[in-house]
Amino acid sequence: MSIPAVEDSWGRIDAWLLRHAPVSHALLRPPASPSAIRAAERALGVRFHSDLVASLSCHDGVELQPGAPVLAYYGPPSCAADIVKSTSFLRGISADVPDDDVLGEDDEDDDGLATYWHHDWLLITLGIGWQSSDGLFLSCHPGRNWGRLGHYFDEDIPTFTGWASLRHALADLADALERGRPFDGRTPLAYEGALLWEDETTAVPDPVSPLALAAESAEPDPEPPVPSEPLFVPVGQSDGVYLAMVRHRTPPPPPPTQPDVVFAEHLTPAELLRRLGAIPDTVHPRTRARAQKSADLPWAAYRPMVRAGSVGGWAYATQEGGAAQFTRPEVLRRVSSGTRAVALTRRGPEVQVTVAEDGVPGPEGVRHVLSPREGGGDSWPGSRAAYARFLAELEGEFGITYRPDDDTDAELTSALLLPVLEDVDRAANRYVGQVRNFDLAALIERTPPARLRTAMVAQLGRLAAETRFDMYDEVSDALARTARGETVDLTPDSPLDARIRTLTAEAWAARQMVSGQRAWRDDNGPVTQSDFSAWVLRVEAARALREFVHAGAPTAAATILSRRMSAHWRTELAADLEG
Length: 579
What we know:
Mean pLDDT: 88
Shape: elongated
Low-confidence stretches: 98-112
Number of strands: 18
Largest sheet: 8 strands, antiparallel
Number of helices: 18
Strand order of the largest sheet: 10-16-11-12-9-13-14-15
Helix content: 25-40%
Strand content: 15-25%
């Protein structure tokens, strides 16, 4: 298959821009003169490849203004003067690299180039940031890579692209514009007279469920205690007399038991577990050792594990595994509803006491101690002392008498948690002006509230369909109610709330499984990076729905539009606004 000449590809690019994106077409610079090209060659001491000469003879780069045409992630084409400037800059940095570390191009493999910058490379675009920190480079080094395109990004290892030449890249660009197909992973669009690039996001339709995998493995029964090693070990016998070797080892003292613990006045342990989000099927008496071991098993799927008991008039729960819960304000708000709650937590050097009453921080507020790191066996002795001191203060202030070691062997009611959802920040997106190069602030300002709401309902529905968030009955019902302007029940423990919490747990478990797999980028484990991405997309769609229900269309608009997977969401939004 013959590749069109550079001039032919630029002719097609010009024609498309003139018809669909005249704003971008107007920012293409006139051709560079032959004398300007020769001056650039002399300045760099390099003979330019014929493809580059032909491209500069069509357009000497672009005017660096909003709307300028760019080559997807690679940024705007450089003019001859910027090629000289960028290349000289990168040569200056590479001059600090020892000669022993500089290899010839022919010594490199085709995909990874182990040197910082070759003398005969020319940076011919200005990258995402429109400066010399990244972009496409063209090799003018005589040999097998003569004229080949590579990608350089901010002092990272340069790599050659799949394009054998600039002529190939421009031909692909012309095809992408004319056919609306991706160019290096991004889709070109014309919007309000300018060329834009969008990512066409895809997701696996049925991601592997970490919670389903966990359900296939039951929690094992506790193992019997391992017999202690005998103190006297016979080593021989002589005339009826045993010879014995006495092994004497002094084990290091165990660290003090200092779990995260939350207390709630006048609640039962069962009610406290419910408020924390206990999963009914996992409620079971467990010792501390068993709870901690169970939390580390595949059965737990990285969900938090807590044990609950009572001291005086207070119920308490200790965290025995999983992501920390008792420092989260939404957890304390739920635990303290109609009562008082006190949380004592420790994270490395910091120990913190938090008091809340009926969902609101009490007058005591938050007290914490941050201890400096020290050498020896205890990196933060101050934090251990602070934990003990805070326990004593809780006894004096609240009548809470609790000793962590007293319940270590007790079989307290315990459970895995389906963590409560984070609070919706009603002001989170209030001041977002731009979303994916789209003027959201202007849209909200000029659109009547009822019309904006209708359009965002439609966009939310599209987002739910793209991510398959709408496959759940609770979600499809909520979307239908939203479209009719009816109330959506998102109260704690409602079916929709439980569904979103379950999706959040799926995404968290998938993240832990993917990050813990060896060579996870090869997708060798039971849960792949693609599975994780699919769960995250559903969680983000759930976030958009919660923002819409709790804070309204203007607040939710930024999340909805930023998470849309279709590259053509702008066209769809325009149709939605038309009604």
